């Protein structure tokens, strides 16, 4: 949910409150959600690159440079005196950024995994991060009604593409599999996880994940700016091993990756 919890100000210096931000009015606008860790925007370069790419795909022009956004975030962190949390950066006409309420998973959810539902839905431009209230709305409704942590989107061919706000990975033996790049949002976390896996010598493949394949996987996890890497315990009627060695190894490696980024 995009409920701003701290003030924001627009780049020309005029201070406004975040009450003036209405997701519906920003439909079609490009955005990023960036995690702030110890005052540092995590994986900022990757987020800025995707911000530009989303604008390009959506046929919009962002009049602000990466340095503008970066300076803006530094001001925002300092002004709000908030050093850990999630920031929403959005651009439809003007650049806006503010801290939003986040829901990081609990320790117990990391330990025992979360249950995910399935939703037949396709995002319009999979590679672009654009405000789209329809798929998000349906996903949020299903999540609220059934108590799922996330719903995985299923396309018209019966293939799982990604979560409504996350990417999905599947483990079979020593193989790590994720749906094809052109069908999903190129999650910054997804990209980092693929790097971590390669660092660990784990084989990563992009493949279509038809629903019929689900019982054949040992473990499943989702990735995103808020969950990082989160084990999935169940999808529909299929259970997965949340203690899977490869999964747990990747989670450790990813924590190291964050630590390194924040320290440097
Ligand atoms: N897919 C979708 C549809 C999303 O909205 C998100 C959240 N931005 C992700 C994947 C995960 O991306 P990231 O790792 O950059 O947060």
TrEMBL record:
GO terms, biological process = carboxylic acid biosynthetic process
Q: Name one Pfam family in it.
A: Aminotran_4
Enzyme class, first EC level, given as a word? transferase
Q: Which GO terms describe its molecular function?
A: branched-chain-amino-acid transaminase activity
Q: Which chain positions lie within coiled-coil regions?
A: none
Taken from the UniProt entry, a GO cellular component term is: cytosol
Cofactor(s) of this protein: pyridoxal 5'-phosphate
The question of whether Transferase is a record keyword is answered with: yes
Q: Which reaction does this chain catalyze?
A: L-leucine + 2-oxoglutarate = 4-methyl-2-oxopentanoate + L-glutamate; L-isoleucine + 2-oxoglutarate = (S)-3-methyl-2-oxopentanoate + L-glutamate; L-valine + 2-oxoglutarate = 3-methyl-2-oxobutanoate + L-glutamate
Q: What is its EC number?
A: 2.6.1.42
Task: Give the SUPFAM superfamilies listed for this entry.
Answer: D-aminoacid aminotransferase-like PLP-dependent enzymes
The pathway noted for it is:
Amino-acid biosynthesis; L-leucine biosynthesis; L-leucine from 3-methyl-2-oxobutanoate: step 4/4; Amino-acid biosynthesis; L-isoleucine biosynthesis; L-isoleucine from 2-oxobutanoate: step 4/4; Amino-acid biosynthesis; L-valine biosynthesis; L-valine from pyruvate: step 4/4
UniProt KW Transferase keyword: yes
Keyword annotations = Aminotransferase, Pyridoxal phosphate, Transferase
Q: Which family does it belong to?
A: Belongs to the class-IV pyridoxal-phosphate-dependent aminotransferase family.
Q: Know the name of this protein?
A: branched-chain-amino-acid transaminase
- In its UniProt entry, the species of origin is given as Maribellus luteus
């Amino acid at each position: 949910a995009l409920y701003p919890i701290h003030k924001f100000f627009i780049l020309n210096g005029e201070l406004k409150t975040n009450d003036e931000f209405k997701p519906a009015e920003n439909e079609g606008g490009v955005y990023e959600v960036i995690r702030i860790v110890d005052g540092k925007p995590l994986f900022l370069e990757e987020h800025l690159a995707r911000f530009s790419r989303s604008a390009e795909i959506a046929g919009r022009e962002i009049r602000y440079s990466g340095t503008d956004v970066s300076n803006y975030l530094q001001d925002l962190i300092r002004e709000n005196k908030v050093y850990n949390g999630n920031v929403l950066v959005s651009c439809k006409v003007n650049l806006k950024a503010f801290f939003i309420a986040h829901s990081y998973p609990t320790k117990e959810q990391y330990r025992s995994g979360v249950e995910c539902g399935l939703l037949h839905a396709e995002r319009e431009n999979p590679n672009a991060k654009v405000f789209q209230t329809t798929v998000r709305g349906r996903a949020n409704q299903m999540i609220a009604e059934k108590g799922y942590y996330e719903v995985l989107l299923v396309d018209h061919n019966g293939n799982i593409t990604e979560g409504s706000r996350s990417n999905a990975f599947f483990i079979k033996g020593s193989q790590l599999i994720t749906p094809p790049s052109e069908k999903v949002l190129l999650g910054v976390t997804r990209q980092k996880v693929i790097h971590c896996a390669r660092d660990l010598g784990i084989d990563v493949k992009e493949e279509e994940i038809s629903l019929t394949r689900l019982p054949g996987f040992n473990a499943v996890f989702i990735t995103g700016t808020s969950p990082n890497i989160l084990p999935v315990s169940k999808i529909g009627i299929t259970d997965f091993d949340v203690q899977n060695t490869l999964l747990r190894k990747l989670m450790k490696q990813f924590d190291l990756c964050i630590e390194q980024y924040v320290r440097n």
